[in-house]
Design a protein that fits this description.
By secondary structure, the chain is an all-beta fold. It has strands spanning 3-7, 11-12, 18-25, 33-39, 46-51, 57-59, 67-72, 77-82, 91-98, 121-125.
Amino acid sequence: QLQLVESGGDLVQPGGSLRLSCAASGLTLDGYAIAWFRQVPGKEREGISCIGSDDSTNYADSVKGRFTISRENAKNIVALQMNSLKPEDTATYYCAAGVCPINLSIASVQTSWYASWGQGTQVTVSS
C-alpha cells in the first residue's frame, strides 16, 4: 500500500524559497500521478500542482511560474520547489496519489479523486 509523507515546510520571508518533498514508502512513486494540495483553516483543500505518470505537469494559476514539481526517482520522492513565496501561500501542504489531468486545471479537481494522503507540512510566509 502506498504511503506518502510530506516534509520541508518552514517559516520563510516573502520572496523566499522552500522545497517540499513527498516521500513514498511501501511502493515506488514511479508510475503514479502525484498531486500537491494546500489548505488554510476554514477553506477547502485546493490543488496546486501535479505530475503525471508520464511526467506531464499541471499548475494552478496561483502558483504558475513560481512553483515547480518534479520527480526524483532515485530518492522515491516528488518535490515541489516554491520560489517567490507570498504571504497568501501560507497553508498546510499535502501530497496525494491520483490523477494529473491534461484538459482540466489541477485547481478544479476533486479531493475524492485522490488517495494515500500524507499528514501535511506547514508553510508559513511572513516577515
